[in-house]
Amino acid sequence: MTLDSILEASPSRRDFLYIATGAAGAIGVGFALVPLIAQMNPDASTVAAGAPIEVDLAPIAEGQVVKVTWRSKPIFISHRTKQEVEEARAVPLSNLPDPQTDEQRTKPGHEPWLVVIGICTHLGCIPIANQGDYGGWFCPCHGSHYDNAGRIRRGPAPANLAIPPYRFVSDTKIQIG
Fold first, then answer.
1. What are phi and psi of 154, to 5 degrees?
2. Computed from CA positions of residues 119, 124, 128, 132, in that sequence, does the dihedral angle turn out positive or negative?
3. Closest by CA position to 100, among listed 84, 117, 88
4. Which one of 36, 68, 72, 108 is at 20 to 30 Å from 124 when CA atoms are compared?
5. Residue 115: beta bridge partners?
6. What pLDDT is attached to residue 40?
7. Model's pTM, two decimal places?
8. Is 70 exceeded by the pLDDT of residue 2?
C-alpha cells in the first residue's frame, strides 16, 4: 500500500464539509416541514365549536360510565348491563315526567350503550353517575334524579338528559357530532 492510496481512501476535509452541509440542510428542511404540516390540523376553536370526535368503546367495561368532552360539554357514555337495559325498558311511560322509551334513547342493535350530554336540564349542573334513587344520575345541586336511561324521574329538572348527535362507526367506536 502506497501513501497515495492511503490518502485517496481516507476522508478529506472537503468530504467532511460535504457531509456536514448535507446533514444541516436535511435538518433545516425537517424544521421547516413541522410547522407546515402542523398548520393543517384544526385549531382548538374549531374543535371546541363542534368538530366530530371519535370514542373507542372497547376499553369501557360493562356497568361503567365514562366522560368525554365535546363542544365544551361533558358527554356521558354508559355501557349498561343487560339487567339495566331490562329495568329501563320495564318503566311505564306514565311514571315519567318527560315520557321517552329506552328504545328512543339508544341506537338499534346497540342497546347497552347510552350516550347523553351530562348537563342537568334544570340549571345546567353536572350530575353524578351511578347515583340517585334510580341508579342513573343524581344532580346534588337541586336534587334531580335520572334513571339509567338518562330520563328524569324526580326533582325540579323539566326534561331528560339530552342526547348528542352520534353514530356507530363500528361495533366498538362511535363518532359524536
1. -160, 145
2. negative
3. 88
4. 108
5. 77
6. 79
7. 0.71
8. no
Q: Please report which residue ranges of the chain form alpha helices under DSSP H.
A: 3-9, 13-38, 44-48, 82-90, 102-105
Contact by Cβ (8 Å): 177, 51: yes
User: Residues, the chain, total?
Assistant: 177
Cβ neighbours for 66, distance < 8 A, ≥ 6 positions apart: 60, 76, 77
For residue 51, what is its C-alpha cell? Answer: 368538530
Say which CATH topology domain 45-176 has.
Answer: Rieske Iron-sulfur Protein (2.102.10)
Distance linking the first and last C-alpha atoms of the chain? 74
Q: Rg for the chain (alpha carbons), in Å?
A: 29
Contacts of 70 (CB under 8 A, 6+ apart): 50, 53, 164, 176, 177
pLDDT of residue 175: 93
